[in-house]
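Write out this protein's structure.
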Amino acid sequence: MYSSSVDYDSNRRLVTDSRGTGSAFLTADLRFKRALEDSEISIEPRYTLRRYSDSALGNGDERSIAASVFNARERSTLQLTASYSDTSTLVSELLETGIVSGDTHRQQIQAGSGWSWSQTERRQLVTQLSYIDVSYHGQASDRLPGFRYPTGSVGERFIFSESGSITVSAFGSALSSDVQGGSNHEYGLQAELTYFLSERTHLDGSIGESSRLLNGESSHGTDASASLTHDMTRANLVLTYTRSLVPYGIGFLVERQQATASAQYRLTPFLDANISALRIQNNDTTVRLGLDRRSINTVSTGLTWHPTETWSAGLQIAGVRTQAPTIHGDVNVNEWRSLVTLTWSPLPRARSW
């Protein structure tokens, strides 16, 4: 996939003393995949060349590579993933710490695995493991020490009908960082329900109780998530909610609530419309310690035109309302962004042997 985009942003840093800037970027995304009846291997490199109208925003180039392996046996499945990314903090930190600089980049190495074993037709043992290592380089890297974040879970899935299942699991995570007081951890129990209300409506929800050590203080907390997906003949609706601990580049776990609503509608066979809204709410401790803004509200809408099978053109308009970071935390700031994108997605070339 190859795409070119131009945008105009009224407040790219989400600060009080803002001025509008523009940017242009080119993206190349290649996917190589080998697929058999019971296994699949893929690797996907991606590079974005980005330049800003304000040279003070620095180098916005981004690069990443992701790989995955999937293998299915008669009673078990195994999936392995690994990725590396180098992303400008103008993208990675804008809705988190607020420490943004075009000359500072976030490097992230991630590895994960998922394994399931069918004990009977209605029972499965499921395990998940992941590891994230985040570091920063550039002008603002002294304020972003990074972190190491292993997580894992093991549980039992009970399939009570063709439409649904319940999974009960134990989970845990630990964040370590070079910053003083930046070692946090969490462990607890969780129950998840997955259910198809109909052929077009899918419900997925989970709730868990955990013991936590955050910023040197022990406590108990609740993790929760819910998603509802409904497919229609010409439209799709998705509602999601999560309440969880999120690792930050400043070396802390932060309790965050996030709600999203999105809809897509096919106006004609060649034209799609979409709209989405996002709200992020951080807890009081996060705000008092100056780790992040209290809340972030985002709304966006756009059109995508598909003149041919391989070409598409998109127009998007988005707005953000939040609070200024650090000492100006009680002052609201706004951002408006317009984006035009042209994309070419050639048809896959397949070879068999």
